């Protein structure tokens, strides 16, 4: 007669396996959401001056070169 042996899988192995399976998908969605948020919020002064102007290669694109006399406020 055959015996049936049950072995318990530790929860850490289950989470490790799920993490390895979902990590690439979550990373792609996170990068996409972050990029969309930066582009949608790039017109706000807080994001523009606090983040985009300080980028090393493309910061000069986001600098405000409008003279003070042409600004309404």
UniProtKB/TrEMBL annotation:
Ranges annotated as spanning the membrane: 21-47
Any Pfam family the entry gives: QCR10
Sorted UniProt keywords: Membrane, Transmembrane, Transmembrane helix
UniProt keyword annotation of Translocase present: no
One GO CC term on file: mitochondrion
Keyword flag Membrane: yes
GO biological process, one term: mitochondrial electron transport, ubiquinol to cytochrome c
Protein name, as recorded: Cytochrome b-c1 complex subunit 10
Gene source species: Thelephora terrestris
């Amino acid at each position: 007669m055959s015996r049936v042996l049950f072995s318990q899988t530790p929860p850490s192995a289950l989470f490790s396996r799920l993490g390895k399976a979902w990590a690439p998908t979550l990373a792609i969605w996170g990068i996409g959401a972050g990029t969309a948020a930066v582009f949608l919020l790039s017109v706000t002064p807080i994001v523009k001056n606090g983040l985009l102007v300080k980028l090393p290669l493309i910061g000069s694109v986001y600098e405000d070169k409008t003279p003070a006399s042409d600004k309404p406020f």
